[in-house]
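Exercise (ungraded).
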Amino acid sequence: MIMKFIFLDRDGVINKDPAWAGKDYVTSWEDFEFLPGTLEALKNLTDNGYKIVVISNQAGVGKGLYTKEGLYEISGKMLDKIESAGGKIYSIQYCMHKNEDNCDCRKPKTGMFKNATKDIEVDFSKTYFIGDSRRDIEAGDTIGCKTILVLSGKIKDGKEVASWPIKPDFIKKDLREAVKVIIGGADV
Ligand SMILES: [Mg+2]
């Protein structure tokens, strides 16, 4: 049986973009605040049999703004909260490189998608990538996913998308609304 995957960005999708705390990166648990409805949306996906994969650029580690250990600590606390609410995350992929490192994983490249699904048959055309930035939409499109831009992070107005060479398949207010596209219940 082919496993059903959903790929998600983290900052601006699961939790508030760190701009809320006046920062470029979530550098500590104090900067991490779940967006409204996120925990329910993740439970909903889990209950519907989806394997949830988080795909997140965290160049702040490469820049020395926080450590890998610090990132894992934030992740662990995030997972505790998600699991207490009934959700389950299958895999978390972080790219800690800087742009100039020219790695294969930093979005819009697709290394993290491949890494999370190594040795597993995935029909990417039947999966979604939900993100809050142009880079997310480009990464999702390159790997062959359907893409959903949520307006809960960096971009507040869907009109901006008009100038993008690669456009999302859907634009939704937040993760809760995006999940309705995937499992039904939305006017799409
Ligand atoms: Mg983001």
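Further reading is listed at the end of the chapter. For now, observe: The mean pLDDT is 95. Strands lie at 5-8, 51-57, 91-95, 128-131, 146-150, 170-172.
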